[in-house]
Write a structure and sequence with these properties.
By secondary structure, the protein is of the alpha/beta class. It has 9 helices and 10 strands. Helix content is about 30%, strand content about 20%. The strands form 2 sheets. Strands 2-1-3-4-5-10 form a 6-stranded mixed β-sheet. The chain has a 4-stranded parallel β-sheet with strand order 6-7-8-9. Strand 6, helix 6 and strand 7 form a beta-alpha-beta unit.
Length: about 260
């Protein structure tokens, strides 16, 4: 990791402090290039769709940039997925990092550009608040991912639950992987009944649910007292093994997951 692009494909950034971002990476001997979307605002998004798509294109096309880190999540990625030139991504593969609303891009890049990316902390609310030890671990995990799970038989696939189900109106070939999957899930500020509803949306999506060979439940921040029951029931309906990893999600110690890696 020598030169990173910081882009904002989803929500706008309030009071963006570019100097803090640049200084943080400089202290690690890394050059940070801040793209226009980080400074822009359109409604609740980081600039209009064309600007955000252009930043994705330029970040992947720039041969001097070796890593792309999203600034934050929010909302807006789903507006971009039919406007992106996936050939540019496929021909210029490099680590792409984000989570939350960025889940939609992780899924689309894997399916339509064969890009293995990273479900991991983002720049503004995550990376630049890391101490030296935390960032060194972050960097090493991006470069030499060592995530392990006892679940086997598929690629690691998933992310933010609400973002995943928002794709269900798309054609299957645009987001459902060819391989079987180890599904990992997390979310924030969703009540139990909505989590239950979204689990059932997955169950009824047979093109996807038939591929699930195991589940990793991350942190569902703000969920209620029935969460454990709902998760157990979901895994039982699928008849697959599951594990719980509370280090995945909208939390400080959100770990790095290699999206698309085979287990």
């Amino acid at each position: 990791m020598k030169k990173v692009a910081i882009i904002a494909p989803s929500g706008s950034i309030e009071n963006f402090d570019d100097k803090k971002v640049i200084t943080f990476f400089e202290s690690k001997n890394i050059e940070a290039v801040i793209f226009p979307s980080c400074y822009s605002s359109f409604r609740y998004m980081a600039g209009d769709d064309n600007l955000r798509v252009q930043d994705i294109k330029n970040a992947f096309s720039d041969k001097t940039i070796d890593t792309i880190i999203c600034a934050r999540g929010g909302y807006g990625a789903i507006r971009l997925i039919d406007k992106i030139d996936y050939k540019i991504i496929e021909n210029n593969k490099k680590p792409f990092i984000g989570f939350s609303d960025i889940t939609i891009l992780l899924i689309s890049f894997l399916k339509r550009a064969n890009l293995t990316s990273f479900h991991a902390p983002m720049a503004v609310n995550g990376v630049i608040n890391m101490n030296d030890f935390e960032f060194e671990n972050y960097k090493n995990e991006i470069e030499n991912n060592s995530f392990k799970t006892k679940l086997k038989g598929g690629i690691l696939w998933g992310g933010n639950l609400a973002s995943i189900v928002s794709l269900f109106g798309s054609m299957n070939e645009n987001y459902i992987p060819e391989d079987d999957i180890i599904l990992f899930l997390e979310d924030i500020n969703e009540p139990d009944y909505k989590i239950d509803k979204m689990f059932h949306q997955i169950l009824r999506n047979k093109a996807l649910s038939n591929k699930i060979k195991g589940i990793i439940f991350g942190e569902f921040t703000g969920a209620g007292k029935y969460l454990d029951e709902i998760q157990f029931e979901f895994a039982s309906f699928l008849n697959v093994p599951y594990e719980i990893n509370k280090n995945i999600g909208h939390i400080k110690n959100n770990i790095i997951l290699p999206f698309g890696k085979t287990f």
